[in-house]
Amino acid sequence: MLDKKINHPLHAKTDIPVRFSEETLERVRKIIERYPAGKQKSALLPLLHMAQEEFLGYLSVDVMDYIASLLEIQPIEVYEVATFYSQYYLDPVGKNVIEICRTGPCAICGGEAIQSYLEQKLAIKTGETTPDGLFTLKAVECLGACGSAPVMQVNTEFYEFLTEEKIDHILDDLRRKSSEEKPEASKWKEKFF
Amino acid sequence: MERKILLKNVDVPGIRTFEVYRSTGGYDSVEKALKKMTPDEVVEEVKMSGLRGRGGAGFPAGMKWSFIDKKSGNPRYLICNADESEPGTFKDRYLMEKLPHLLIEGMICSCYALGANTGYIYVRGEYKYIIGILNQAILEAYEKGFLGKNILGTAFNLDIHVHSGAGAYICGEETAQIESLEGKRGNPRIKPPFPAVVGLYGCPTVVNNVETLANIGFIVNNGGGEYAKYGVGKSTGTKLISACGNINNPGVYEIELGLSVREFLYDPKYCGGVKNGKELKAVIAGGSSVPILPASLILKTAAGEERLMTYESLADGGFVSGTMLGSGGFIVYDEDACIVRNTWNLARFYHHESCGQCSPCREGTGWMESVLHRIENGHGRTKDIDLLVSIASKIEGNTICPLGDAAAWPIASAIRHFRHEFEEHVLHPEKCINSTIRQFDDVTIS
User: B140, B183, B331, B441: which has the highest count of C-beta atoms within 10 A?
Assistant: First the structure.
């Protein structure tokens, strides 16, 4: 966790307008209301999740600055949080982020071999994104699903008891879904924020 | 003989919805507490129950509650710790997924006892779908008048909100969780002051694990004395055990404390024995942070007594020959498991998850990972083994929060019980059963 934040080149430029829609802003106001008056900074973690989902799939400097302005806090307060938590991405990612668990319980149930197989199938190394921008492969620490090891999470979905055949199906499925537009994005927001 | 408290109704169809949950007697405890009991009476029942914190530390829950500062006049908060991140532990996920209302019911009674009008459920960011389930259950509880203003016509008001973390093991530590809930990095605070006096927003705060809070409804309904009839001695009640690793039936089991480890491990009702007919090699009984024990010491204590699933029995022998019940993450290793590789894997985990605040933990976890990586990859030196023991001993007890201890214990215990395996790796690395997959190492730390 420590290593990525030292001298990390934060991405500054974004070529899309960084502003939530009115509908999302209404949701932002509701999130801020969960915390006592004057403690709006508490909404930072949920809002960073929203911003990452809504804008680029990762957090650029101008996205983080926008969140700082919404919460009336200093940009540095956002940067220091964004660089601390591993679910906030500071680099561009593919449309689907595959997070394979690499921790002990998954490792002894074949997780390492599954990670190798994913690298082979996607023809990338862990940490990289496929040239078509469809997949980023990340190795993450314990996902809390050790009873169904090996596991991985793609976007919000858990995939359990992984085998090579299952990986084949999952990747095909994700490829098919990705050719459509992201239809469930708004429903996702509805449920999780 | 199986007696259950938490998962009694888990298989009732539709139990996730308010109506079905209510029809099984759900939320009765809220009516009883709010209408017939004073807050102090609820605290007394929880004290009498002997319920101990189910997150890992095992501190008596009633005593923790009794520390809350009621004189300051500041608002009080309850935080439900649902940041379940201890490798090998997935019981809270199961509980929240199947029985979200059980948690909310327990939280209402707990907030009433503590005089808190706001409760937060801090859910780890990876459990996004759980957040959806909890939000739905909370919405139903508001609609039915169990949350909000003047609950059940009483003067008691309560709001419960779900707050999402973002991937940081350290936020399971209560003061780091409070920092995170305030929108900051998860750096633990120095104690004292304890959260019960200076917690969230500087106000009196209690942080309890999901499973701990889920037990409160039963205690209110039946009394602390009835709860204490479950279990053995000071290990009262039941415990959710997350069983994983090389076993036939991985999953979440509710056991009455006092069950023998042998029965839990081999009975088809539970783990069902080691997978593929292999021999048992080792067990980590309470989540990755607790000492690993070899097969000979997990089934029986050093004194030759049957080892039981209780706080006391698992700790029998101290760290020389015992371990801890911890969070109940029961990880089983078969004869093929490489202890060195597993220890390196866990060292990498703690290095990755160290918040970086205290030097012994920040630097020590990195060194332990590097040295173990060297041994695992066939470049180890004999003196590396004692070097690891030395680093571990310098982290333990020298950090602000228990992550330092949690990082040191697995390594110190693996060397204590499997020293020969480390020596073998140094002298004959090619003999390791895992040598074929060794090419695969990713040494990058993201």
Answer: B331
Q: Cβ of B250 under 8 Å from any chain A Cβ?
A: yes
A chain contacts of residue B128, beta-carbon cutoff 8 Å: 156, 192
Residue of B349, B437, B440 with shortest CB distance to A103: B349
ipTM score of the complex? 0.92
* Interface list for A 109-148 with B (CB within 8 A): 109, 112-113, 115-116, 125-127, 138-148
pLDDT number for residue B434: 61
Q: What's the fold here for domain A96-177?
A: Glutaredoxin (3.40.30)
pLDDT digits (tens, 9 = 90+) for B215-257: 999 999 999 999 999 999 999 999 999 999 999 999 999 999 9
What is the distance between the alpha carbons of residues A70 and A64, in angstroms, rounded to a whole number? Answer: 10
Each domain of chain A, given as residue ranges in start order, spans 3-82, 96-177
B169 touches chain A (CB under 8 A): yes
Give the domain A3-82 fold.
Arc Repressor Mutant, subunit A (1.10.10)
pLDDT band at residue B432 using 50, 70 and 90 as cut-offs? confident
Residue A3 has pLDDT above 60, yes or no: no
pLDDT for res A16: 76
Residue B178 sits in the same domain as residue B271: no
Residues of B with CB below 8 A from A86's CB? Answer: 166-168, 446
Which residue of A41, A138, A147 is in closest CB contact with B244? A147
Interface check B264 vs A, CB under 8 A: no
Number of domains in chain B: 3
Least confident among A108-112, A138-142, B68-72: B68-72
Answer whether residue A89 shows pLDDT above 50.
Answer: yes
User: Looking at residue B388, what is its pLDDT?
Assistant: 98
**The domain boundary residue, chosen from B188, B207, B228:** B228
